[in-house]
Amino acid sequence: MSHPVVTRFAPSPTGFLHIGGARTALFNWLYARSRGGKFLLRIEDTDRARSTPEATEAILKGLTWLGLDWDGEAVSQFERAPRHAEVAHEMLARGHAYKCFATQEEIEAFREAARTEGRSTLFQSPWRDADPTQHPDAPHVIRLKAPHEGETVIEDAVQGRVVFRNDQLDDMVCLRSDGTPTYMLAVVVDDHDMGVTHIIRGDDHLNNAARQVQVYQAMGWRVPVFAHIPLIHGEDGKKLSKRHGALGVEDYQRMGYPAAALRNYLARLGWSHGNDEFFSDAKALEWFDLSGINRAPARLDLKKLDHLTAQHFSGMDDAATLQELELYLAATGAEPLSETQREGLLKAMPLVRDKAKSFGQILEKAYFILTTRPLVPDEKAAAALSDVSRGILGELTPQLQNASWSRERLEAIVSACATGHGLGLGKLAQPLRAALAGRMVSPSVFDMMLILGREETLARLADACGSDTC
Fold first, then answer.
1. Dihedral through CA 145, CA 148, CA 149, CA 150, nearest 10?
2. pTM (2 decimals)?
């Protein structure tokens, strides 16, 4: 009998949503959504000393911005501690776990002796097969009675067949002496109770899978499909760390990348569909499969992300671009757009979005429509507005006052003016751009004139010339 696909993302709320975690969430989301299944979210907040509400909120915000919606409410692992303890006691009752009264001093003494004698330091509890009637009334942990012979095999959907010798695995602690469950037990119980069919996570959890499978087997539960994906490395081939710069999803939002581009890029980090680089969510959902995940670590390459961003911007709807741009402004703490600015930006969006690689670049190109008179030119624009160029703009202005406001006519007038002064069109376009935008990065001067309109264009030229009549 086939089971509906259920995947999960289970971050620890000890910091931001890491870019590697975001990719793991994306893979789980794609696999579930592409198969009509469920994508669940579990907050693994059992480490009370390091877990914070702020980190949980950052994770939820990061997933929401990235567009990875989950089914139902997020589950708190900490709140399920009574259920985890219940399972530990059930394994105890079934004979698949035992009470261990060994103290930390006794465990360390065992390991020290093992090191001296050259034996394995895996702790072998003397309480494993002890008669329960001989148990003292003392603090104890509950340990899994793991098999010590044979092998535990993981048929991993990415790594292939992975074999662990059971004599290399210890009897892990399931319930601490204070009655709190360990992470290793809690994960298994939660995944079973949530009906998870596919566990897609980083390959740094591969060794954990062996012990976790033993818990499934002890409880007689169906073992889910494991898929351990390689971690993301920096461009230098080393594991991602603070030295590589942006690590959190919110960093990429503040850097001005649109969510669709980051989804596309993360999907290609360690997974492939032929030679396809740029694709939509619809295509990703159509193509995604665990067989396409590579075993080798993926390398972060922001140049590829920039390239994909430009492609995504070119195909984005104007209103959607504006909506996400406003989220970018909020994320960076910038002033929100006024209604006038929003209207002007929507009008200019096809121009300012073209070839942009970030929302910051869009805003830079859109400065001409977002600013108000009198413009304060930056250093490069001020340099282009020399006395000579101002004089030429002064001659050009009257010719524009009664001209037909079409691109063809505007180009003809400006070209004729440039030719009359022995200049190429580009030479006159520089001071004209400086007067209209106050910056040297903008759409073409004719596009700006058409968007600004006659009145605003002439007013800006007059400001630049320093005269009401120019």
1. 70
2. 0.91
Structure tokens at 454: 């006659």
Q: By C-alpha distance, which of 7, 65, 31, 23 is closest to 269?
A: 23
Distances (CA, A) of 74 to 10, 40, 41, 67, 271: 10, 7, 5, 16, 27
End-to-end CA distance of the chain: 82
pLDDT at 237: 78
Secondary element (H or E) of residue 452: helix 445-465
Which uninterrupted H or E stretch holds 198? strand 198-202
Tell me which DSSP letter residue 73 carries.
P
Contact 141, 107 (CB under 8 A): no
Q: 24 and 229 in contact (C-beta within 8 Å)?
A: yes
List residues with catalytic annotation: 242
Q: Does 466 score more than 60 pLDDT?
A: yes
Q: How far apart are CA 246 and CA 240, in angstroms?
A: 10
Q: Please list, in sequence order, all residues whose beta carbon lies within 8 angstroms of the beta carbon of residue 308, skipping any fewer than 6 positions away.
A: 261, 264, 265, 277, 278
Cβ within 8 Å of residue 455, ≥6 positions away: none
The Cα-based distances of 193 to 8, 186, 454 in angstroms read: 12, 10, 67
Instruction: Tell me the CB-side half-sphere exposure of residue 222, using CA atoms within 13 A.
Output: 12
In the chain, what percentage of residues exceed pLDDT 70? 97
Largest CA distance in the chain: 109
> The tokens of 8 are what?
């999960």
Half-sphere exposure of 354 (CA within 13 A, CB side): 9
Q: pLDDT tens-digit profile of 372-390?
A: 999 999 999 999 999 999 9
| pLDDT tier, 367 (very low <50, low <70, confident <90, very high otherwise) | very high
Q: Identify whether the C-beta of residue 200 lies closer than 8 Å to the C-beta of residue 27.
A: yes
pLDDT of residue 244: 63
